[in-house]
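#onboarding

Welcome to the new folks! Below is a worked example of what a typical request in this channel looks like: someone posts a single protein sequence, and someone else replies with the predicted structure as tokens. Don't worry about understanding the tokens yet, we'll cover that in week two.

Example request:
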Amino acid sequence: MGKRSRAGSTAMAGTVAVPRALPSAEHVVDVHLVWERQVKKLDAMDLGTADEQTFQAVCAQIAHLEDLLLSTPARTLEGAMAQIRRVMTILAQSDLDEREQHGLRLALATLAKLRRA
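Example response:
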């Protein structure tokens, strides 16, 4: 009996095949890292010659990705680090006090050390 036949007869018997092992946390890609990469690509675009509609569309997409990145709880240490990096980038463009920026840099450095430990 081939694999298809066995799977079909198992399903007909009322049982469900269960995967042998779930992926470990090491193999889980936190969606925050995907959003962060997407924001970085959009940020890197040269919009100097773009028309207003294109400029607004890119800005709207960045805002949407930032909303997802910053409002969704991270499932991994790397995801939390992506959140902090984005906050640092946003705040670096504002009038944030150097003390807060320094605090965020220290927090990110600590998370990086903990990740390597």
